[in-house]
From TrEMBL:
The protein's name in its UniProt record: Actin-like ATPase domain-containing protein
SUPFAM superfamilies assigned to the protein according to its UniProt record, in alphabetical order: Actin-like ATPase domain
Annotated organism of origin: Coprinellus micaceus
Coiled coil ranges: none
Domain of life: Eukaryota
InterPro entries: ATPase_NBD
Amino acid sequence: MKAARPYKGTRRKLLLAFDVGTTYSGISYSILDPGQLPEIKPVTRFPAQEYISGASKIPTIVYYDNEGAVKAVGAEAVSESAIQSAEEEGWSKAEWFKLHLLPKPHTASNLSQSIPPIPPNKSVVQVLADFLRYLYACASSYIQETHPNGAALWDQVQSQGGVEFVFSHPNGWEGFQRQQMREAAVMAGLVPDANAAQERAMFVSEGEASLHYAVYNGLPLGALQEICAPQCHLHGSVSVNLHARTFLKERLSSSAFLDDLDHIVSCFDKTTKLRFKNPQEPQYIKFGSTRDNDRECGVRIGQMKLAGSEVASFFTPSVQCIVNAVLEQRRTAHRPVSHVILVGGFSGSDYLFEQVSQALHAKSFSVVRPDNHVSKAVSDGAISFYLDHFVRTRVSKFAYGQFCTLRFNPMDPEHRCRMNETFTAYSGERRIRGYFDIILAKNTQVSETKEFKEEYCQKSKSRDFFKRITYSIQCYRGRDPVPRWKDTDPSMYAPLCTIEMDFSHLTLLPHSTLDRNGVQDAYYQVEYAIILSFGLTELKAQVAWMENGEERRSPAKIVYEPDITVG
């Protein structure tokens, strides 16, 4: 798979894309040489999978011993020796840990209650860091072993500024989750510090990465725009396993095989789920030997018999979620929608594809899926996102703004009913608190070049005050299309981030004024503007000021707030 255009950089660079999935993860990479057409390649050899041809994914699993040391990762963690050691030595297993990063509104779902806990004395960022460190080591070994002069190539890119990374993430991830992933990248040793993480680690949603992959597999290339806000639902392949587990736990509740539930669900995941096509035919989960029998539970010679309709019921919530999400996106889209593309490992299920196709065909949609290895669509697509950058317009998921005060208007009924929020400013003017000043409305198409500029003036008697000036951006997640006042829907507002600015480098000249007693007093003043870009894959902020009659700009630091439960 090749990029659409030659690399325009001036020096050789190595680009790695890490797709950390809930159950399986993959790596893609590209060696970028100036003027050459980059080739996108997957890492297809991992420890404990050396003899599996074309294996492009490993299980997203990390085992820790009682001291918190990493004992097994990826394919090594599902080997018989690792499983035996884990049982004998009491290792802790971290799996599905990616789901612990989801914003709080998503983790409030019933499905999320089944997410396995993080091992003792570990944070999700630490587990993620351990896994990223392993992926990085796998990529390093693979590139050095499979490319001509691979060791020299690796040393060269390290000496010329290091590797650059693209991390794909669920559509529902926000700034705080990306901030945590950058922390994990530093902790894992992928980059030396936070500044390097800001420069060399970038992000793309799994949806947008998949779109780039689809372009190379039949999707016509044109002016690609995001025309509706992305959605995120916990109804992927994992949810089928969870519904199967609930069913099997009930079926085996009085059976000796209940102790084998984890193994049986694993066998269902690897075989029965993948082969399932026809709900009219019985299905089987082969998990034991010919000596394993329990007629009451439908177990005979080591395999459990299920009705096809029972297996179909495990898929039903996912099918319904996909169909409903597509219909909702068509309802809110800025342009007509006629095609649906299924990518990712779950789209490899023929039953899922057939059910979604039938339901959406009845709603005048065409449903397609790429012919190639859909399991590596996200990691390959993440590389393409960096190289080709097909999408230039995106849609805001929420309303963004800040709380401010307004001049009190006694003729305005909205003001009169908020008399308890009024106050007298230093100027003697009566003002009212709690107004939400919208910077960017929900479901708005924004181009990457669109800038939102807010102008301010800060005054202080102390020069030190200007070393750290902060600006808070709020996020409204409710249903009101034009939110105006905090008290009308208070639980739907949450802080998104704080923008920090440093003006201590400016030449600050004192201004004079008279205090209340008529005594001359001195203060310092800075007039500046905050420039926000919402049309990129993540929020960018700059600060601007006038110096010698010219506008100067510099990046501003963005600090994201921890997730706050909304609703």
